[in-house]
Amino acid sequence: MVLGLDISVVNISLFRLVNDLGKEHPFLNPAFSFIAEYMVFLLALSVLIIWFTRNTDNRIMILSASIAFICAFTIGKVSGVFHSNYQPFVELTDVNKLIHKKKDNSFPSDHTILFFSYCISFWLFKRGWSILWVLLAVLVGVSRIWVGVHYPFDVFAGVLISLAAATFIYLTFPKLSVTQTIIKIYEKCENILLLLFKRTKGNKSKNF
């Protein structure tokens, strides 16, 4: 009981430490609000761009990251059954809430799971400058605390779940024969569609 109380106190203290920065430095609030809410579109666009480079290794990376996300998201939902808490703006007073969010279980952070599943996977496959993806994921996690919709432990749980899922999938999925089979089947279908598109386009040009 005492341990649970201590963890709760630490969680709230860390939340206040980050969330209060928005009150002390309000000029940063628009940037963190944008990161917390809209950076997901940048991630989605990046995934599409990487996929359509038509590089097999890149496609295996995207597939691995997507499977890692599905696994991590599922684990997150299951863990949310055993432990739940409302968002800080529901449970605490004087929260610097910057974005609209409905009252629900905020444990663990879905945004954190999404970003860390993909960004950790990108780094595991590419290393080097891909560490910037991990830094982006960290920034998103912090932003969710900054805008008042998650506790630090919601974010930490999301990080741990995603790290475990991404690492496991990275070490197993690319080595499976079914992985190469899936990619080859997809690429054959893609090439057929591209060929049909080129023929259709060529016929239209001739008609003109």
Written account of the structure:
The structure is a single chain. With 208 residues, this protein is an all-alpha fold. Helices cover 77% and strands 0% of the residues. The chain contains nine helices and no strands. The protein has helices spanning 2-19, 21-24, 29-51, 56-82, 88-91, 110-126, 131-146, 152-172, 177-207. Helix 3 (29-51) runs antiparallel to helix 7 and helix 4 runs antiparallel to helix 6. The radius of gyration is 21 Å and the shape is elongated. It starts with a helix and ends with a helix. The mean pLDDT is 91.
Please render the helix and strand layout as text.
Elements: H1 2-19, H2 21-24, H3 29-51, H4 56-82, H5 88-91, H6 110-126, H7 131-146, H8 152-172, H9 177-207
Helix pairs in contact: 3-7, 4-6, 4-8, 6-7, 6-8
State the distance separating the first and last CA atoms. Answer: 80 Å
Structural class, judged by helices and strands?
mainly alpha
State the helicity in percent bands: over 70%
Report the average pLDDT across residues: 91
**What general form does the structure show?**
elongated
Radius of gyration, CA atoms, in whole angstroms: 21 Å
> What is the H-and-E element order?
HHHHHHHHH
**DSSP strand tally:** 0
Q: How many helices? A: 9
Q: Give unreliable regions as ranges.
A: none
Q: What is the beta-strand fraction?
A: under 5%
Main sheet properties: none
